[in-house]
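Write out this protein's structure.
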Amino acid sequence: MTTIILRPHKEESLLRFHPWVFSGAIQKIVLDSDYPYSGPQEGETVKVEDAGGNIIGIGHYQTGAIAVRMLQFGADELAADFWEQRVTAAYSLRRQAGLIRSNNNIWRLIHGEGDFLPGLVVDVYGGTAVMQAHSAGMHRNRNLIAKALIAAVPEIKRVYYKSEDTLPQKVREDGCSSGWLAGEGEGGCIALENGLKFRIDWEAGQKTGFFIDQRENRALLEHYSQGRDVLNMFCYTGGFSVYALRGGAKTVHSVDVSAKAVALVRENVALNFTLDAPHEAFACDAFEYMSGIKDKYDLIILDPPAFAKHRDAIKNALRGYQRINARAIEQIRSGGLLFTFSCSQAIDKEMFRLAVFSAAAQTARKVRILHQLHQPMDHPINIYHPEGEYLKGLVLQVE
């Protein structure tokens, strides 16, 4: 096995169990003499040692800023049933939390670092697991992982692989087409979240087909929807819209720039309600739509795509969050509620809150925070990896 030897004192974060080794921390790479080649292969399992030769653990090697993603600390090899052990532990957590039940068969099984499997995401829709690899190592082990999913989780009958947009460029160039790894089925299904039906399209949809991370926040919105005029911006599949309708909203308007998303939200509304449901959907730009909605709505949801996917974009992203929140706060009816979110990992809670504070101050309206929101339990945060806390949200009341 190839050995990664760190520079002096660069092991300190790993001794605190942070799961990443950055390329700048590496002093040298000692290749396995039994397998001579020019350097570590993308996704190869490697051993990590400090400058004194002490074993820190093992992980997956990859070219880039994050050179190694740690799979295990304190050992120099993985157990034969490593993948099944980790899947079983993740499954047990979801079962203990009561997440897997007859009226809810949409859930995340593996959440990367939060389930001690950095670079891997697995979402479950009915009997299908949709796997996404975000690292070369997980891509390289995809078939072993699929076998572990089938063996450890009774609900999973099929495994679909979808990583064409999530893997590093070098891996994509070598080939990483989507398709079935275990079993076979259609390109989507109708699945249940808290008793509501949603069309899931894992082949053509964003991410794995649905944004599971807003489940608990959608349920909270349902609680507040009775008798309100609701605007769901950046609606995508219309999750918030469907919950608002079940909550007794007076009217619900869904807006997304994508005509395909608007068609999907209409389908999801039709799956759950009669044709006379008080819902309309519009395909148009969010900022344009919000330019003239004064006093039209008393509940607005702002759940935009990530404005900052990397740190270089933080400044522009914060301006974007401030601009759109100011527009909503300025125009919402007195006594209205604003559910506002950021899913940008590069934007931390304090940055987001400051952007929303600046937006509120710009309008000079009285604004109170009722709830501070975050990702649900099936998107756990590894306590040694605070970067995993990516979803931030606030529920504001505006006088």
